[in-house]
User: Fold Tryptophan--tRNA ligase from Rhizobium herbae.
Amino acid sequence: KPLVFSGVQPTGNLHLGNYLGAIRKFVALQENNDCIYCVVDLHAITAQLVHADMRSQIRSIAAAFIAAGIDPKRHIVFNQSAVPQHAELAWIFNCVARIGWMERMTQFKDKSGGKNAEQMSLGLLAYPSLMAADILVYRGTHVPVGDDQKQHLELARDIAMKFNIDFMEHIRRTDYGVDIKVGEEPVHAFFPMVEPLIDGPAPRVMSLRDGTKKMSKSDASDLSRINLMDDADAISKKIRKAKTDPDALPSEVDGLKGRAEADNLVGIYAALADKTKGQVLEEFGGQQFSVFKPALVDLAVNVLAPISGEMRRLMDDTTHIDGILRDGGERARARAEVTMNQVREIVGFLH
Ligand code: TYM
Assistant:
């Protein structure tokens, strides 16, 4: 049975990229799957150790999940540090994975750019190992994320595969394994191979100021991103000021090639409207940005205003959000402990 897992870091403001690349997909997936959505506070201390308002950041991510439409009763919403099994499995994965695998991650290279090894935490390097543990401690199979997380999920597969192979004989001695095929290779596996879910018209939402950079929480320019909590005026201003080229929109998707900013805005429109880029261009092909941008403003405000309104309401009553997280944490812990009991036995620890 598919198990959907994904996580969002409680660092900085959630933006349209987080919503379209991840949270919106979380909502859609709950219809037919068992879903676990996590606020990854242990990841949040890898790049910057001390946070003044970590608790409110954690609550605001949880509030965004709920406001967007995630049902915390049918599914699980919790924060990572409430389930110590994540860190326990991550430690074992630190011993399975190789340092070179971590050093090759482009996100690590980006975040470490210009810094030397004395200035970076060991946690930043081991980040993907914890991420693999997040998913696999529930034996998760499907992971909705934006395109920037693809490489981390490939690494999660490598870690799962190496664990399965290194401990193959140990796994055989238990009845926890299942026969799977990896390519043509039959493997008696304990951990499944995770599938990234990255499809849709906006797998990588780009900065509104520069179509070659992804929209990011850490961009110094607030004009580069639409925050989930932005009001209608801010959304309107940012979209009106968004960088574009002088040409009209093309009527075919092919015509967006080499026009990164136009491509980005059409992708955003399509994702918000639940359409394909082709359908958006059928409607707006041949039109100028002076026509398209106001339509995009209306659409973005219509979709985002109810979410930010509900987030504000939820943030006013922290006992409600804290209750959801506590309940989710308990249920997650019970499930993670089942896996960890098996892992401890496979690895050979005495309990
Ligand atoms: P984070 O917190 O940086 O981002 C949360 C989600 O938003 C997606 N995203 C984007 N999608 C499209 N366009 C963008 N510009 C954009 N920016 C961010 C991210 O891809 C992500 O899906 N390492 C993860 C958190 C994590 C996780 C996990 C995810 C920890 N453990 C286990 C999945 C499974 C991260 O830093 O996401």
Observations:
- Residues 5-9, 17-18, 21-22, 40, 43, 131, 134-135, 143, 145-146, 148-149, 152, 204-205, 214-215 surround tryptophanyl-5'AMP (CB under 6 Å).
- The chain has a mean pLDDT of 96.
- The longest strand covers residues 3-8.
- The CA atoms of residues 5 and 36 lie 5 Å apart.
